[in-house]
Amino acid sequence: MMASNVLVTCGGTAVGLVLQLQGTLRGVPALRGGGVFVADQAPTPPAASFADATFVVPPVEHHAYVDHLLDLCRRHAVRVLIPIMDIDLERLAPHRCRFADDATTVVCPPPGLVELCLDKRLFEAFARNEGLAYPATYGADALVPEMFPVFAKRRRGFGSIGAAICRSPGEAQAALARYPDLIFQEVIAGPELSVDAYISAQGRCTVRVPRVRDKVIGGEAQQSHTVRSAPVARLADRTIEALARRGLRGPLNVQLFGGDRPTLVEVNTRLGSGCVLSNVATDGRLFRSIVQEACRDTSTGDPDDYRASLYLCRYLGDVIHDGARPVASFPPPPKGVHDDSGRPVRSG
Fold first, then answer.
1. What is the DSSP string of 252-293?
2. 335, pLDDT greater than 80
3. For the stretch 10-19, what's the b/e string if a residue is b when 16 or more beta carbons lie within 10 angstroms of its beta carbon?
4. 125: part of which helix (H) or strand (E)?
5. pLDDT band at 1, cuts 50/70/90?
6. Which residues have a Cβ under 8 Å from the Cβ of 332 and sit 6 or more positions away?
7. Between 230-245 and 120-130, two packed helices, what is the crossing angle to 10 degrees?
8. Hey, CA dihedral for 168, 172, 177, 178, is it positive or negative?
């Protein structure tokens, strides 16, 4: 029987993503009847109460992580594997062919494209070469007092760790003492936006949803709303087209500062943290495109076809455990996810 399940890695807190993917599978013939699984290093992740199955895996950095995932995909008929963190992309990209040999598609670009967007120096060179508006960027040895304030970020950082405004040379030196790999950029004024997008197998952008990141904690959007902006769309389209020419396919998240003259910040070659909003804004087309093309089907669509002025407001939910056994969750999980005892279905 053909594999028909989807596995989200590092997905222990991604409850909204799991629930929307479950709805997506029901509309994709190749995956109809399949489930959405979650892999996480935590033994009791919140998504366990909502996913169709959960698996405890080693940390991403562990030497056995990839082999563990390969074994899970073989044993549990996983057809599509979706990593949602940069560090996971970096680890899995070199092994895409190993998963493909077992009929599992990893939604991740080749290593060179992952590296291009992870390494901020490489990405800066890409942006300059393509003529894309990008902040002036300096190494620590190029800083002079009249440049301040500057924005510090790690060359290969994740989740905004180490990112901060330095208002003086002393603050920059203190930041470097904590994170020696920092680079520095001019401070840009303007609203911070993310553009959730999808590049089809034919190299065409079929989804492009700009949204303002109204409230961000630890690099994750907690409040966001979709907008229409011709200048933002133009810069996003030029960035997406340039990456498509280099071979990028699948989901991506373009981050930029808005206004009349938008400025590019970076690109994540994965789903953005607020992608659930963009999926709703496209009536499910974002997630549907991902799983359809992972199953060798064709996705189409107009990037301007989305709803503006939709708002995402995340809130705290609660899962109560008795040891490792979930006993209650608020809100409750949907019907069909629990076994006869009322506990979430778990494997691993």
1. EEEEEE-SSS-EEEEEESS--TTHHHHHHHTTTHHHHHHHHH
2. no
3. bbbbbbbbbb
4. helix 120-130
5. low
6. none
7. 110
8. positive
Whether the CB-CB separation of 44 and 320 falls below 8 Å is answered with no
pLDDT tens sequence across 173-227:
999 999 999 999 999 989 999 999 999 999 999 999 999 999 998 888 999 999 9
What value does the CA radius of gyration of the chain take, rounded to a whole number of Å? 20
What whole-number distance in Å separates Cα of residue 85 and Cα of residue 283? Answer: 24
In whole angstroms, what is the distance from residue 113 CA to residue 117 CA? 6
Beta-bridge mates of residue 319: 329
The number of CA neighbours under 13 Å toward the Cβ of 281 is 29
CA–CA separation, 21 vs 283, rounded Å?
12
Structure-token pair, residue 203 = 């190299």
